[in-house]
Records
---
Amino acid sequence: MKIFNTLTRRKEEFVPLEPGKVKMYVCGPTVYNFIHIGNARPMIAFDTVRRYFEYKGYEVNYVSNFTDVDDKIIKKAIEEGVDAETISQRYIEECKKDMAAMNVKPATTHPQATQEICGMLEMIQTLIDKGHAYAAQDGTVYFRTKSFKEYGKLSHKNLDELQSGFREIKVTGEEGKEDPSDFVLWKPKKEGEPYWESPWCQGRPGWHIECSVMSRKYLGEQIDIHAGGEDLVFPHHENEIAQSEAANGKTFANYWMHNAFLNIDNRKMSKSLGNFFTVREISEKYDLQVLRFFMLSAHYRSPLNFSADLMEASKNGLDRILTAVERLCDVDGKVSGAEFTEAEQEHVAAAKELVGKFEAAMEDDFNTADAITAIFELVKLSNSTASEESTKTYVDYLKDTIEKLCDVMGIITERKAEVLDSEVEELIAARQQARKEKNFARADEIRQQLLDMGIVLEDTREGVKWKRA
Ligand code: AMP
Ligand code: ZN
């Protein structure tokens, strides 16, 4: 299995630290709002990587954090007049719902920064003791980048160039830095912000330290794969490497994987540019399986431009697969026969070749685009060879094979019953009528019925509103 490693800029053969096991850490979102579909790209891409490892029989320990202490969370909390925890907990819950709707498996562990402060204090102290960090007069603790000889190895930046670059930018409040390229491990609290006690000052951690600490706690000092979006290469992952390797004295991660951006009009989709769609918004128009299929239709290291046309194409592509499986299920009830016929034996050989093609694509740095092409070819084979004249063994073989490969992609082959708007409106009208007649039991029954169909009602002053859950 070959993985493109950002560290070496080469595709390398994957050799796990421990045979049969994969330890991987994926940087998760900062939780101050609903996630947008750009944030969904690493979730889907690396969930698919995980699924392929599992398909190959590996036991995967998958850790992905929630950054729940950050300037943006605090700002949002102040705007709403609530505490930061209320904001982060709310959006962690919402993010988990989106992940489930995209069929992204829950991580083995989803640590949260605020629950791991003790570990961070410990690692920062170790870094100070080893001369890799220092506390400035105001209590800010900085990592001394010059002390880590390999600083820049991931992003392929030269520390001297970096330092001269940084020198141009004078940041107020960071006068205590020995060197402009040093970065923050711990910073003093500001009025009204959440803070923790520490030997240096009451304050909170810098962003990078959380991942070094949580990765070590849940996966150990050395891991196989560390992943995230390509904007994290520098400075986040570069700094993580410096912290972890300086503290532990060992290579941190063997393979660094980075997904390219999801763009819109060829610009990165981002909250700060305001050019984003949330996953929740997309779910009002499409089944999120379509979004997942769309994401996987490109290689994870290729930029992907979001457009309505491509989403429609993905919807049709997915539909072709689901229809084929539906047809196989239909035929399955009508056929018998345990032994492949001679012709079927040939078809099975062709199908096995396509499975081989699928695996070869996935083993070439997880080329999901080519893997999907192999699934389409399998669908074509199925459509042209499976019929009521087939043996049950053959129909079952095709169905299981397509389902297994789709499962690696995180695609559920069972079609969800489509709920029509008109159907929902009719039930809502019936519920209103029941309420008018004070038949509240019936009204509740209808609400539940709608809920079972995935429809959530909200009674507002302007009347009843509904949405798909
Ligand atoms: P953030 O909440 O901004 O820290 O982002 C969480 C994850 O989403 C990180 O791995 C980012 O690299 C990734 N990400 C953010 N925006 C995009 C985008 N437009 N395309 C792909 N990945 C993104
Ligand atoms: Zn991280």
Note: The CA atoms of residues 80 and 87 lie 9 Å apart.
---
Amino acid sequence: MAQKRLFIAISLPETIRAYLARRIEALRRCASCGSFTHEENLHLTLVFIGETERAGDIIKIMDGICPAPFSLTLSRTGKFSHSRGDICWVGIKESPALSSLQSRLIKGLATAGFLTEERPYHPHITLGRGVKTDNFEDRVSELTFLVSDYTLMESTNENGKLIYKEIHTCHLSGKKDL
Ligand code: 2AM
């Protein structure tokens, strides 16, 4: 099987993506440089896995982790600083349901031999990378959305365009949760 660059993410409803797209436009206008997330690519990463041939094993792990649906709320903007420009993001309010889902996935993947992120999880939605600006507005509308599924995504680059493809979606019912 071919290597794929994979990550597990929560997709965002259109209303949230439209709101964030407006924030990205505002950020773009006040930035001297940066690469900004396309509206259709906006998502909340749960776990970045990287290059692997083992998509089937990941799907089995996901299918055993199906808690009940839960809500998330946007919190504030923030940035990870880099000398070549910052990663600018919108954060998510603390959510025990989100933390639990993320840590169960990490544990399941680690048990199956995947190397995953060991740093603490900082849930964020990336608006732009390599951004240089002194004017990143920090207020965010505290919009809430329901998470009723999460998805294994493949990150591909087609003719220089970053494309995320859905490989498998796990619907949160709370019924099949192991
Ligand atoms: P982000 O959440 O800060 O945007 C696909 O690349 C997704 O996985 C992106 O959302 C990306 O970052 C996240 N990710 C986490 N760690 C990564 C890494 N080491 N390399 C690439 N992407 C990573």
Note: Residues 102 and 163 are 23 Å apart (CA to CA).
